[in-house]
């Protein structure tokens, strides 16, 4: 039958009437930028995360740049960031004037660790970007214990939980993307900065609006980067459903485990105390490219997201050349995302696992992965 890589339509199917009503409400109001929907969504999203403030911006990339600047990052500073992540996590650093310094990840959790961050610290490190990759939750408290403030890139982790709280409320500030395929997605671009630090929130509010409080006096060179009223209204309809969708993602992961996927590939490992709302379900295999071909032949959606890590991208040459990150290279070479959504059924998971089993057993090139995975400690 085939299983798609993700399904964003089914979870929204029951919400169409409420979404249309929300869109009409904005149309009738005539307020499109920084109006009551954005203010209400900022309050609701901050409360959901357990953060004191939320500041809506145009997308998750701007959210990182603006949050870093609001945290005081600027010219001459270093910002430590992983290389195994979506490009934007690092791309957002140079516009602040700071330099990205790449650190490694644990290829089991796909997240940075206190050790990998420590190895990348410099006397100029002003902040660390901890990416909660694929919905896993990076160890923010352990990293902040090194004495550096953490900006959580939680673009992929809406709905996840950790022992210390939710992403967005674990570090000095957090950033989210509401790109349509995200765990909480709008119908265009959107982003959010969360923080419990009033001064960071205030600077972020000013920066998103041309560096001005009042459009009369311009105190900083800022941005035109706002979440708009339509997107906020759409997100307000969805936010109450986020936890249910996150449970569906966790349930899908359980289906995979119960169907025996762990006998065939390395399963993603949640960090201690974390309850990830798997945005992407990413498995590891020494011959991931061949597994990909075999799964695609069986009509199973699958995709390697970050085969070339960020520090090896042409635009990052200035900062990435000569940097050796063995865990990142391993993750880049062996990872493969397989179907995941809040509505992935047991039958679909079994179909994916059956296809993976056929690939491993019948395709001579795709060897069986034997636990423990060769890169475990
Ligand atoms: C980890 C991560 N960081 C940042 C971003 C950037 O978000 P946006 O696409 O909204 O700019 C994304 C989105 O794809 C992401 O996955």
Explain what this protein looks like in three dimensions.
The structure is a single chain. With 377 residues, the chain is of the alpha/beta class. It is 36% helix and 12% strand. The chain has helices at residues 9-13, 16-29, 36-49, 60-70, 88-91, 114-120, 140-144, 198-207, 229-238, 242-258, 288-297, 317-320, 326-334, 346-362, and strands at residues 53-57, 78-82, 99-103, 125-131, 150-153, 173-177, 191-195, 281-284, 335-338. Bound molecules: pyridoxal-5'-phosphate. Pyridoxal-5'-phosphate is lined by residues 59-61, 85-86, 88-89, 131, 153, 155-156, 177, 179, 189, 191.
SSE diagram, text form:
Blueprint: H1 9-13, H2 16-29, H3 36-49, E1 53-57, H4 60-70, E2 78-82, H5 88-91, E3 99-103, H6 114-120, E4 125-131, H7 140-144, E5 150-153, E6 173-177, E7 191-195, H8 198-207, H9 229-238, H10 242-258, E8 281-284, H11 288-297, H12 317-320, H13 326-334, E9 335-338, H14 346-362
Parallel strand pairs: 2-3, 2-4, 4-5, 5-6
Antiparallel strand pairs: 1-7, 6-7, 8-9
Helix pairs in contact: 2-9, 3-9, 4-8
The protein binds pyridoxal-5'-phosphate.
